[in-house]
Design goal:
Structural class: alpha+beta
Helix content: 25-40%
Strand content: 5-15%
Shape: elongated
Mean pLDDT: 85
Length: 163
């Protein structure tokens, strides 16, 4: 690529940086980068009573034009079999249905204080008061609370009676 002054060649059809940038849809700085990388040939064109201007080889500019994306040819008819339509219908139903709800957590029969709070929605102080009032059945070491007694309390059933 020649970056010098050329006296013999006819440069009248060569493009200025601005014209090349407009053709390529980019800035003049991008044109400068392409020149430095050697992808576009440039030279100086003499002008009367003015400084020489940089002009670019139009063939190189055309070569660097962005290529339009061409879609591959599509089949003229898209015929789906009955099985394929059934499968597509089922997939559409699945995609448009609400997501399945997660299964509620499974709790053991005897709960720790933390699990009892989580299960019942009551605070630890409230559960301690229910234990002190003997409304909840507990095992002391380690502290475990009977899940059935929490359910009975939540349903408003009669408190448990110790024999």
């Amino acid at each position: 690529m020649n970056n010098g002054t050329s006296q013999a060649a006819d440069l009248s059809h060569w493009l200025t940086k601005r014209e090349a940038a407009d053709r390529l849809g980019c800035s003049e700085r991008t044109i400068d980068r392409l020149i430095r990388k050697g992808e576009i040939q440039s030279t100086l064109r003499q002008r009367p009573r003015s400084r020489p201007e940089t002009v670019l080889n139009p063939e190189d500019v055309e070569y660097n034009m962005p290529q339009p994306h061409v879609m591959p040819p599509q089949p003229s008819q898209a015929i789906a079999t009955r099985d394929e339509l059934g499968l597509l219908t089922r997939v559409a139903q699945i995609l448009h249905s609400p997501p399945p709800q997660p299964a509620p957590p499974r709790y053991p029969l005897w709960l720790s204080l933390t699990q009892a709070c989580e299960y019942s929605g009551l605070g630890p102080g409230h559960i301690d008061r229910l234990i002190a009032q003997k409304i909840l059945i507990v095992m002391r070491r380690p502290l475990r609370i009977c899940k059935a007694s929490l359910d009975a309390h939540a349903n408003g059933d009669v408190p448990w009676i110790e024999p």
